[in-house]
Amino acid sequence: MTNLREGWRRARYYASGFMEYLLPGGILSRFIDSELRELTPRQKAVVEERVAYYVRLPQDCPLTFVGDFEIDRFRFPWDRQERHSAYFLDLYPYLSILPGHLRFNYFAGDTDKEAVCPTLIKSRPVADGATNSAICRLNSLRHFRFVKDRIPFGQKLDMAVSRNEVRLQPWRSKLLDMYCGHPLTDFGQINSDCGNPEWIRPFMPVTDQLKYKFVMCIRGNDVATNLKWVMSSNSLAMMPRPTVESWYQEGLLEPDVHYVEIKDDYSDLPDRMEWFISHPEDAEYIIHNANRWAERFMNPHIERCAMALAVREYFIQTGQL
Fold it and tell me: pTM, whole model, 2 decimals?
């Protein structure tokens, strides 16, 4: 059943994405303009605040174009669709409504590095002030998943769960090295081509992970992909303080308000778990705040408006609009 639902979700995403790809930019432009006009003053203020966070390019940085992308020549990457199609379909509608001569830098993929020149990108290091990395809502099919969790925190297992691929990521290997097989955890890696054989566990669907009180949100090549659905659930997200952020604004999350912060070396994980097991009211407080945060990204109209304005702001700040 889980695989069937995921299959339908992917089918709807690609059907909708290709429909927008084939529509003339003028139709999309009128549709997005209509949604922008329908925003309430409060919604508009929230969108503008988010756009200002996503796009804050340096004023004195010389504008260079590494990839030499131009809107009129930005076409579906048929020869690399497996890697880039979801990024392309997320970005294309918001470029197609702008003048075709505009140029931009664009990176499709995971990164925890700062861009060397103004770039439309999925993720960047958490930092204050100006940045070349203009965050967009990219690869949303994989990253923006939310759940309806019907299991109250008090009825979940007093354990932490983790299922990840582990490759050249020492921060993930360290977690398994310390706690795989620990009585308070159900940790494992789902890939068998790297790492220690004793860490390998079968894939666990989200519905089964929701049976645990604690879900580890350990970053991969950039951010922790599962953080969004965990924060929409009745389980606690446990992780070190984020060092990389995306459209989800991980850099603004407050420790022990939106998630349970653990040390970078994971040494306090059992103690932190024991605290929230014996203080469920503190757990419920964090879960409430986490759910409210996740809800900020669930309104498709607001998400489209924010993305449209963020992309436009990139061209304004690069002096092209």
Answer: 0.92
Residue 144 DSSP symbol: -
Furthest CA-CA distance within the chain: 60
Q: For 13-17, 95-99, 255-259, 287-291, which range has the lowest pLDDT when averaged over its residues?
A: 13-17
Alpha helices in 132-259 (DSSP H): 140-143, 170-179, 206-209, 227-231
Quickly tell me which residue has 């076409």 as its tokens: 75
Q: With a cut of 70, say whether residue 285 has pLDDT above it.
A: yes
Contact 140, 90 (CB under 8 A): yes
Contact between residue 27 and residue 102 where contact means Cβ atoms under 8 Å apart: no
Residue 27: C-alpha distances to residues 21, 35, 93 (Å):
11, 13, 10
Q: Got the DSSP string for 258-278?
A: TBEE--TT-TTHHHHHHHHHH
Q: Is 49 exposed, middle or buried (0-12, 13-18, 19+ CB in 10 A)?
A: exposed
In the chain, where the domains are located: 2-136+298-317, 153-295
The token duo for 214 is 């604690």
Contacts of 317 (CB under 8 A, 6+ apart): 55, 56, 57, 118, 134
Q: How far apart are CA 127 and CA 245, in angstroms?
A: 9
DSSP state of 151: S
Q: How far are the Cα atoms of 40, 78, 237, 267, 279 from residue 272, in angstroms, in the given order?
A: 41, 48, 12, 10, 11
Q: Estimate to the nearest angstrom the gap between the alpha carbon of 27 and the chain centroid.
A: 28
CATH of domain 153-295: 3.40.50.2000
- What the block records as the tokens of 13 is 């995403």
Here the tokens at position 166 are: 């582990």
Could you report the per-residue pLDDT of 294-305, keeping only the tens digit for each? 999 999 999 999
Q: What is the pLDDT of residue 29?
A: 85
